[in-house]
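Quick note —
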Amino acid sequence: MERTRHRTAGAAPRRARARERLTAVLAAVVLAAGGALVSAAPATAADTELAVNGGFEAGLTGWSCSGGTGAAVTTPVHSGLSALKATPTGGDNARCTQTVAVQPNSAYTLSGWVQGGYAYLGVTGTGTADAYAWTPSAPAWQKLTTTFRTGPGTTSVSLYTHGWYGTAAYHADDISLFGPGGEPVRVPDAPTGLAAGSPGSTSVPLSWTPAARTTEYHVYRGATRVASVSGTSTTVTGLAPSTAYTFQVSAANTAGESARSAAVTATTTSGGTGGGLPPHALVGYLHASFANGSGYTRLADVPDSWDVINLAFGEPTSVTSGDIRFSLCPATECPNVESVAEFKAAIKAKQAAGKKVLISIGGQNGQVQLASTAARDAFVTSVSRIIDEYGLDGLDIDFEGHSLSLNTGDTDFRAPTTPVVVNLIAAVKTLKAKYGRDFVLTMAPETFFVQLGYQFYGSGPFGGQDPRAGSYLPVIHALRDDLTLLHVQHYNSGPIMGLDNQYHSMGAANFHVALTDMLLTGFPVAGNPSRVFPPLRPEQVAIGLPAATHAANGHTAPAEVNRTLNCLTKGTDCGSYRPRSTYPALRGLMTWSINWDRFNQWQFSRNFDAYPWS
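Predicted structure written out below.
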């Protein structure tokens, strides 16, 4: 027996037919009395159901799903015979879209039913504030509803559903957009303004001008489609070093795909973001310019366990000068300090043994704000002087405190406008260009400046938030092709929400797994699904931990460190948080600090040396 389909949206046609019958009755009454039927107001478009195939009874007709991630299935369904099943991957959130014609200055209600893991239902291109509803989990069918109003020039909007990278499949059914209809959807015009950013050795960033009436853009490398995205930028990865590539982009909606844009050609660099590191590396900070309770450790006495040694710290002459200075710890503070000549000889010996020695800028006391172009240029000049004098391999950016803060209105990490952020990016790019592909670049931000960006970014759309929240994200994003290692400090941190929307606290494997998974999976910044921080490569990521209980808050016992690595690299020994994938190429660990590890009988480095990576 055929199942009868009951749809909430079906009420719309019934109401429309009821209005028609009432109008006819009134007309008959008026005409029977010898009168004329006069309209009291100009005619307007009637509210009606606008979503095409919202129940997926006709398969995916009217819908376009990214990367072939969507399919019509017969179970489970909310009603009728079919529903959408969309399965995210590690690099695709299974976004399914439809472009709908609408009227300007009109109110609409978008609703739908979802089941499964993360599920979003939303609309873009409204001309006002785009809207969405979502749920992190829907074991049974759950209704999502949101409303919006179109702008004065809006004639079409794009509906979408999507899940989350690497999570379980989601199901959607009975998608409804109710409101006044517009003109039929037309195929978009070809995008314009396609441009290539600074290529990496295996990637090329692309951006282009938005095209009206567009649901998604298709990116082509030569004749091959390599990406489908909803925004106006993407980074094409998986390329070969020192190779020229030609790219084009087209615009698509439910009416079809446009012609391709004019082509742009870009050549990848010769390779490397500071090569020479082993597959799994140990990074440590050496207190070179000061002493504390851990005591002073000569560079020559640092064991071979350490693959990257960050000299702490280069500090500015003033917060806003950009003029960075570095000198060895004074003998009055560090009686066993080596001479400058001995220090330089130790650097060369470490490098001869395959180690990398970097200057780390900032730290807890070294606030650096490059608020002017003069400060930016002074930073480049002074850091270059330090690197050249000591023959160093690169730079570590350890900006803390109030070094980075976003100005009000700077809300998009992909296009920052705050001077201290823009100038830092420009300065580092200049240094990278000066020293070439072997220049090692690392960063050690606190969780407040990175993973907290999942919930909060800057002062927020309405102001009032801490403007430092997530403020490292634009720096990391802009420099991702130059970045050797990101090792976020998993210490001195408050609880942080992971992609499971649960808070995780320091000192346990779950905290480290959840926060690392965010970097390797990507996440929507401030919960905005149209502004997703893309994942980093596993070999670009290390986990920052204190070497001892005295070093910092959040010390993690060796057994928990090993559980963290087991879960992330092998998919075993996981706790309540399970990462979206396994990452056997995870680069390794960073610690604060080498001095504190020595104080603690080298427990941290010995545990790292003994860990079985395979």
